[in-house]
Amino acid sequence: MLMGFNLFASGFFTALNDGKTSAILSLFRTLVFLIIPMLILPGIFDVDGVWLSMPAAEVLSILLSIFCFKKYKSKYHYDYGENSVASIQDELMQQFEKMDKAYEEYAKAKGLSYLGLVVLEEIFELGDGCIQKQISDDTYYPKQSVNLVVKAFLEDGLIELKELPENRKNKGITLTDKGRRLCDDVVIPILRQEEAATQKMSESEKCELVRLLKLYGNAYCDCVAQIGK
Fold it and tell me: Around 115, how many Cα atoms within 13 Å sit in the side-chain half-sphere?
């Protein structure tokens, strides 16, 4: 969720023809801010520190993005008025952070890390036989981070790795009985609550939410495609 704001920030400066700032934001998010937590956090939280590296990188990237927004405000003449892009993004970021915090607190209450819950939920939804590349592609987390979580799950007896007949180079992930019980206790309740949250909106509100997201998403993709030509 935090990732969305950071991707927007990089795209925002690209749209302003400021490739340097956009490149800096992208480099720090995908490399510098990822390496620093990976060097520090494992020494404090052991394996959990590796899992926390990605969320930590996103948080650090948000701070850098906010700094850049404020630094170049006068140069590019965008403001923080009630209906400005920055104001809208601030509000979106606050909502994303609130949702992220609730998700993280739930994971901790169930004895999992943020990334651990993300991966477990993805394994449950993809079903037996899924591979790590699918999880990485769906969640946008690096393969190395996903692999560390999978190894921990394997050691805890939550999953098994089985050779796939159609692709012997990859091993499919299968939940064990212990893993399925954990999903019953952890994953299914959070999925039900996500559904319950949408039920608090009327049908017209749901349709409007989807419509606006599609409208913004299509407009954003078109704008980025134009500057990429």
Answer: 27
185 DSSP assignment: I
Question: pLDDT tens digits, residue range 142-169?
Answer: 999 999 999 999 999 999 999 888 777 7
**Exposure string for 49-72, b = 16+ CB within 10 A, e = fewer:** bbbbbbbbbbebbbebbbebbeeb
Q: Are 173 and 157 in contact (CB under 8 A)?
A: no
Q: How far apart are CA 102 and CA 104, in angstroms?
A: 5
3-state secondary structure 112-132: CCHHHHHHHHHHHHHCCCECH
pLDDT tens-digit map of 53-104: 888 888 888 888 888 888 887 777 665 554 555 566 677 778 888 898 999 9
pTM above 0.85, yes or no: no
- The answer to whether the beta carbons of residues 58 and 7 sit under 8 Å apart is no
Q: Where would I find the H helices in 72-202? A: 73-76, 85-109, 114-126, 132-139, 143-155, 177-182, 188-199
Which candidate, 202, 222, 220, 223, places its Cα nearest to that of 212? 220
Greatest alpha-carbon pair distance for the chain in Å reads 60
